[in-house]
Amino acid sequence: xxxxxxxxxxxxxxxxxxxxxxxxxxxxxxxxxxxxxxxxxxxxxxxxxxxxxxxxxxxxxxxxxxxxxxxxxxxxxxxxxxxxxxxxxxxxxxxxxxxxxxxxxxxxxxxxxxxxxxxxxxxxxxxxxxxxxxxxxxxxxxxxxxxxxxxxxxxxxxxxxxxxxxxxxxxxxxxxxxxxxxxxxxxxxxxxxxxxxxxxxxxxxxxxxxxxxxxxxxxxxxxxxxxxxxxxxxxxxxxxxxxxxxxxxxxxxxxxxxxxxxxxxxxxxxxxxxxxxxxxxxxxxxxxxxxxxxxxxxxxxxxxxxxxxxxxxxxxxxxxxxxxxxxxxxxxxxxxxxxxxxxx
Amino acid sequence: xxxxxxxxxxxxxxxxxxxxxxxxxxxxxxxxxxxxxxxxxxxxxxxxxxxxxxxxxxxxxxxxxxxxxxxxxxxxxxxxxxxxxxxxxxxxxxxxxxxxxxxxxxxxxxxxxxxxxxxxxxxxxxxxxxxxxxxxxxxxxxxxxxxxxxxxxxxxxxxxxxxxxxxxxxxxxxxxxxxxxxxxxxxxxxxxxxxxxxxxxxxxxxxxxxxxxxxxxxxxxxxxxxxxxxxxxxxxxxxxxxxxxxxxxxxxxxxxxxxxxxxxxxxxxxxxxxxxxxxxxxxxxxxxxxxxxxxxxxxxxxxxxxxxxxxxxxxxxxxxxxxxxxxxxxxxxxxxxxxxxxxxxxx
Lengths: 344, 347
What we know:
The complex is a heterodimer.
Chain A: H1 2-11, H2 20-26, H3 28-46, H4 53-78, H5 86-103, H6 109-134, H7 138-157, H8 169-172, E1 178-179, E2 182-183, H9 184-202, H10 204-214, H11 216-221, H12 226-252, H13 263-273, H14 285-304, H15 312-341
Antiparallel strand pairs in A: 1-2
Helix pairs in contact in A: 2-15, 3-14, 4-9, 4-12, 4-13, 4-14, 5-6, 5-7, 5-12, 6-7, 6-12, 9-10, 10-12, 13-14, 13-15
Chain B: H1 3-13, H2 26-30, H3 33-51, H4 58-69, H5 75-83, H6 91-108, H7 113-137, H8 143-162, H9 176-179, E1 181-182, E2 185-186, H10 187-205, H11 207-217, H12 219-224, H13 229-255, H14 266-276, H15 288-307, H16 312-346
Antiparallel strand pairs in B: 1-2
Helix pairs in contact in B: 3-15, 4-15, 5-13, 5-14, 6-7, 6-8, 6-13, 7-8, 7-13, 10-11, 14-15, 14-16
């Protein structure tokens, strides 16, 4: 009796039963890339000025800030967190730096960038403390801090805008200047991406971030200091948003009370499109970069295709929902596949 | 007689009965979060009265109550959602979408106002239903991410409908919702009180309410005990949509018109009220009464701060700090107690 049972199980065509959805997951980035290429072709047929050098450089420059923020958000999402406060952090750091350069016009642009990053890190440390040490849910903690930073921003600015004529030329030129032939914003983004690639894939701390996200209990048992990792992750996120604040203010040449309000949703959308799981533990740099580019192309292409700006929000929302649903379906396929392949 | 039997006899001898209800103790009764809230409420009243001579003024207080109560309707279902260990950040967008559709149906499609009100409630319910169904059908997705998506989508649809315009011109009787009163009591307060009683009974005295608590404590266990977990969750999220639509009606009535950007960030105020009301973000714990007191604390606090000319931007900071304090302080307490407990166990 027992033998026949074993025989039956051996006869099952185990290897052949792989889900199609699971196969998709192996080529997720490729699929995203294919979608981007398809989108570009469609837009190009509607408006020939899309694939021109001028428009493409514009697009890459506009996507630089989004891609920097998406990188930080990816780390946060990997640890099962979420950060809704980055728009406010960005605005606060941008406002303080803009006020500083409007008073001390001789301030070196590099110092301004460092100052913005430091403000951002300070904001991030506060959130990291609330999440890691006190144990408040990330969404609640960052929702509260979003309002606190936004309120501080209004208080610091006293409701005033800092416009381009108040800023020294050296500061405004951060966004327009070039380093070895590449726009400074893009150059900074490239440096950050290379550093992050090394950090995430080749350092101990980088790998521990994934460990904490995919299974907090076993990470703890293996001796990973969860508090430290969370603090680091939220500080990186804060630092990147502070940096982006300076770049943002320099690019748009104005700092306002409501700068980048609601931008956190776009950043989270870029991550989700790039295949970062909101349940933590998974996410790739290449995916996030492609996700940010997809959104950047959409933002650039919709006006070119004469889509009303009032449609953009709804389109963005639908894309997020569709992306997360596809993600969920793909994950189901992978899980089913793993179960089928499991040796019993 | 064997050793084992002896042990059983002895255990019968010391057998204790487990009571299904705990003994009433005055100490426990007064050590509830709600008493602290009532204390804070009176503190707010006293401080405000001292800070501004205009605070304790019948008409002023009545008008303030009318203004902050509109978002308070969403607090009821949000309590249930947070007891379920979920969150809904799309409620502000639902308010905007349902009010925009109501105004458009009345102004551009010539529907009678009554029908437009019905449509408003229907749209709200539909928004909530979509949230609930997505969360239930795709268990891999957390409520955070689903409602984040629908938050952008619903407001986006509102922008598609009205673009950057405002829509108003409601019939005169419609302003009764926002400004009317029956025997000196604001109509909105009466509706709020009725709904408060209904929701308190629903949460604490019905099978449905007990199922919500059970799911918040352990969804898997409640499913195996025969609770239709998916159904309960969908109903709760639909209720949130309906309450958002009711908020939309009162808000549109008070403002006299509506725009796609109304009710932005309502979700923060609502979540702050719920958290302040002692509903645990870890789920399974909390009482409707607490949240209702918290509504009045936050409302009068903001009104009082407005009277002494504190700008609304500073109010953002204060709301945020209150939310952090409400969520953080019990955490500190619990963790310290837990550490003491662990130390005792180890000893």
